């Protein structure tokens, strides 16, 4: 596949490359002040505004802020906020899910509804974990939408948002510029960044709201300076502004609820910006996997694309892990995931292809949830097949599963628990695994 090829119709966005770089970009020449942040008067009559994603005093490696030069400051956007309908969007702690019995859970793909829904209206939360107010934990949702947000602009004060499109593309119009996003790519919108999402047909995807500190790249340790997700493949948009003086609906998620107000212009009015706090996208097919070259199945942490650390070293608030195309070469090894229980809880989705632990039952667009300390592993077909397979080098191709793995137990929402797509029988897939034990025969 030629990753550099991009259909002309999608070529609406331009990017700067590098994870966490300090970028500078201007849509009008000279809009950025030189050598200072806040001159007495900004060029073109713009307002200067700082957006701080970390405490002012955070260590240099995790200090995140950007300076935005905009037509109106954000404080001018303020009207009296009214509660807005959050639909099926939930935040932790939601109070839902406490009565759902602990079990492995799975859902078939949920179709995009008939009626017109925007990205914002189409967010349906599946699990919540931790506590948004305590800035710890996450929520996993699906978006199911088929109309553009147009004159509706949103920002999330509760969470950073990781978008994983599965079916249909999105155009993200953000304060920092435009991002086009298709299945196979992911985007991160930092907490507090305003955006609108446009579509040109039905769009479905997985949304991870990160209530904690920002996603970053995992350490590579002995792997060295290259492979896994390489920093140069992360793309930030160049500045692009809207100068549209017409009514807009401004929606904020704050304190676990949605609030709205009207303003008379587009708040996506940033003409220039500089800094290291900005939305970005990444093509998952650029991930360079590293894995076991001789025997055994390594922990899935080798496939971590992004990690949102907690205060405890090695204990992520969220790890975003993928299972991309790769060669399986391990000798005398049961190659699929092993049977296990995990102190972290595992929300999985499938963007395309087949997942080796559940080759038939887990469908693209579906969900599985293997919660904190609940047992799971290959289904009977995967076990029987992999136990007897001829262990030639084998390539897993055309596949992209992913996992949102969090230190917190995930509570299932009422919406997800009641879905007709919930596969109740999945709780019992382990029963099909037959007894093979024979004390008289060492060669099984
Ligand atoms: O449970 C899963 O399917 C995800 C997973 C994959 C793997 O290769 C090892 C551990 C793990 O949790
Ligand atoms: Fe697992």
Overview of the structural elements:
Its cofactor is Fe cation. This is Homogentisate 1,2-dioxygenase. Belongs to the homogentisate dioxygenase family. It comes from Sabulicella glaciei. Keywords: Dioxygenase, Iron, Metal-binding, Oxidoreductase. By secondary structure, the protein is mainly β. It folds into two domains: 277 residues, Jelly Rolls (Sandwich); 137 residues, Jelly Rolls (Sandwich), CATH 2.60.120. 3% of the residues lie in helices and 34% in strands. The protein is built from two helices and 28 strands. It has a nine-stranded antiparallel beta sheet. A six-stranded antiparallel beta sheet has the order 6-25-24-27-22-21, with no helix packed on it. Strand 11 and strand 12 form a beta hairpin. The longest helix has 9 residues. It is globular. It starts with 14 loop residues before the first strand and ends in a 27-residue tail after the last helix. The N terminus is likely disordered.
Quick gist of this model?
The protein has 444 residues and is an all-beta fold. It has 2 helices and 28 strands.
Descriptors:
binds fe (ii) ion; 6-stranded antiparallel sheet; 9-stranded antiparallel sheet; single chain; binds 2-(3,6-dihydroxyphenyl)acetic acid; disordered N terminus; Jelly Rolls; 2 domains; mainly beta; 444 residues
């Amino acid at each position: 596949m030629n990753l550099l090829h991009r259909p002309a119709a999608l070529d609406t966005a331009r990017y700067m490359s590098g994870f966490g770089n300090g970028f500078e970009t201007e849509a009008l020449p000279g809009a950025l002040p030189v050598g200072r942040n806040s001159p007495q008067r900004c060029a073109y009559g713009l307002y200067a505004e700082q957006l701080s994603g970390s405490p002012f005093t955070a260590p240099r490696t995790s200090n995140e802020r950007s300076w935005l030069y905009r037509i109106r400051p954000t404080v001018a956007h303020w009207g009296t906020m009214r509660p807005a309908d959050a639909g099926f969007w939930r935040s932790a702690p939601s109070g839902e899910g406490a009565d759902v019995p602990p079990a492995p859970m799975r859902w078939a793909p949920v179709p995009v509804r008939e009626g017109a829904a925007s990205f914002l209206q189409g967010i349906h939360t599946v699990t919540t974990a931790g506590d948004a107010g305590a800035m710890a934990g996450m929520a996993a949702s699906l978006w199911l939408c088929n109309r553009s947000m147009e004159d509706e602009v949103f920002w999330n004060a509760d969470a950073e948002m990781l978008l994983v499109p599965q079916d249909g593309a999105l155009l993200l119009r953000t304060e920092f510029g435009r991002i086009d996003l298709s299945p196979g790519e992911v985007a991160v919108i930092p907490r507090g960044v305003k955006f609108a999402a446009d579509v040109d047909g039905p769009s479905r995807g997985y949304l991870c709201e990160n209530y904690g500190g920002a996603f970053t790249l995992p350490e590579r340790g002995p792997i060295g300076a290259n492979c896994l997700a390489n920093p140069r493949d992360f793309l930030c948009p160049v500045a692009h502004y809207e100068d549209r003086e017409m009514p807009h609906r401004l929606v904020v998620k704050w304190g676990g609820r949605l609030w709205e107000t009207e303003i008379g212009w587009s708040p996506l009015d940033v003409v220039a910006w500089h800094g290291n706090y900005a939305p970005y996208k990444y093509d998952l097919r650029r991930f360079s996997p590293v894995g076991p070259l001789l025997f055994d199945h390594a922990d899935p942490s080798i496939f971590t694309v992004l990690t949102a650390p907690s205060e405890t070293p090695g204990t992520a608030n969220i790890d975003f892990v993928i299972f991309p195309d790769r060669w399986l070469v391990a000798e005398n090894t049961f190659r699929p995931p092993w049977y296990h229980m995990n102190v972290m809880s595992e929300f999985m989705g499938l963007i395309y292809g087949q997942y080796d632990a559940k080759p038939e039952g887990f469908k693209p667009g579906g969900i599985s949830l293997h919660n904190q300390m609940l047992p799971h592993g290959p289904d009977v077909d995967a076990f029987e097949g992999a136990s007897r397979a001829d262990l030639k080098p084998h390539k897993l191709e055309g596949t992209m599963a992913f996992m949102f793995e969090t230190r917190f137990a995930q509570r299932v929402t009422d919406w997800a628990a009641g879905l007709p797509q919930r596969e109740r029988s999945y709780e019992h897939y382990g029963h099909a695994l037959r007894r093979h034990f024979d004390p008289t025969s060492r060669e099984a």
